[in-house]
Design a protein that fits this description.
This protein is an alpha+beta fold. The protein has one domain (about 10-45, about 75-165): Histidine-containing Protein, Chain: A (2-Layer Sandwich). It contains 3 helices and 6 strands, in the order βββααββαβ. It has helices at about 45-65, 75-95, 125-130, and strands at about 10, 15, 25-30, 100-110, 110-115, 140-145. A 4-stranded mixed β-sheet has the order 3-4-5-6, with helices on one face. The protein has a two-stranded antiparallel ribbon with strand order 1-2. Helix 3 (about 125-130) links the parallel strand 5 (about 110-115) and strand 6 (about 140-145). The radius of gyration is 16 Å and the shape is globular. The protein starts with 9 loop residues before the first strand and ends in a 22-residue tail after the last strand.
Length: about 170
């Protein structure tokens, strides 16, 4: 279930990676073998401390600018994750081809980030458009590839510590 965040820690190069912000993050399909797992919201404690101020400021701007009814954009994430689960269930029937992918979705500050591997004929526009219809979603970010052997457009879980400077 997408609401359950991945809280498992992994130690890489002596650093523990965790989902410090409890951002909803879940693999929603797994049909393409050997698709590299994204780091998603799992970062080192040092990176978390560097991001904390920006995260607070970014979350509060939403309310101050009148784009959010709640005081912080991150307060929407749990509800968005639950609505996303319902939307994906509907899409299983109306757009079943998305299940022939290996996808992870992260919810963070009203943004959905879709990461993973898709078939060459995957209807990205239709699928991402359907995710934009989830209530309170501000943006949907596509970080998918049909050619994982050439690399992926996201930081991989195993490489997260060595690549944290690119976040």
């Amino acid at each position: 279930m997408l609401v359950a965040t991945i809280c498992a820690a992994k130690i890489v190069h002596g650093q523990t990676l965790r989902n410090f912000g409890n951002d909803p993050f879940q693999q929603v399909s797994h049909a393409i073998p050997n698709c590299p797992e994204p780091a998603g919201p799992r970062i080192s404690e040092a990176d978390w401390k560097r991001e904390a101020h920006h995260r607070i400021e970014e979350g509060n701007h939403c309310y101050m600018e009148g784009r959010c009814r709640l005081a912080n954009a991150y307060q929407y994430d749990k509800d968005i994750a639950e609505a996303l689960q319902r939307r994906l269930e509907t899409l299983r029937h109306t757009m079943p081809a998305w299940q022939q992918s290996s996808l992870w979705i992260m919810v963070r500050g009203r943004w959905l980030t879709v990461q993973g591997c898709v078939a060459a004929d995957f209807d990205r526009k239709g699928f991402l458009g359907a995710l934009r219809e989830v209530p309170d979603v501000d943006r949907v970010i596509d970080q998918t590839t049909a050619t994982p052997a050439r690399g992926v457009p996201y930081i991989q879980y195993g490489d997260a510590v060595t690549n944290t400077s690119s976040r």
